[in-house]
Amino acid sequence: MKKALIALLLIAALYAGIVVSNNRIAEDLRKQVAGCMLPPGTELVDSAAAAGKMEGNGNGMQYYGAALIHSDLDEGPLRTWYEAQLPKEEYIWVTRRESELFDSSTRLFKDYEDDGHYWFVMLSRYNPIGKDATLLDGLRDIDIRGH
Description:
By secondary structure, the chain is of the alpha+beta class. It contains three helices and four strands. Strands 1-2-4-3 form a four-stranded antiparallel beta sheet. The longest helix is centred in the N-terminal third of the chain and has 33 residues. The chain is elongated.
């Protein structure tokens, strides 16, 4: 009985470590987006991080760091600005509405009045699968949020 309890505690600790690790990846992406120098005439309204399966089908972890900004600039200049500022190995999204990326149940920003000048800037990363995946990547996929 004691060995079973120890084994159960070890499994729970491993799972908790995986969840913390996945949350940290998403939080690092959020810090990159929120810490990015803002274009002229732009203010940071809010930022958020999420780890889980936010879009698509199948299994696998996805990580998101997002910023809600208010800007007088259009999509083109904003996209050019953020693509120059943020890492190239991640996916960069600049869109008018968060709903273009996620359905209403998984939205990161719920409480803002859209006056036509709000933009959703997101940095996303997907956990590698197949031959590019490491053992750690495989362990990160154990997180139930990725299924």
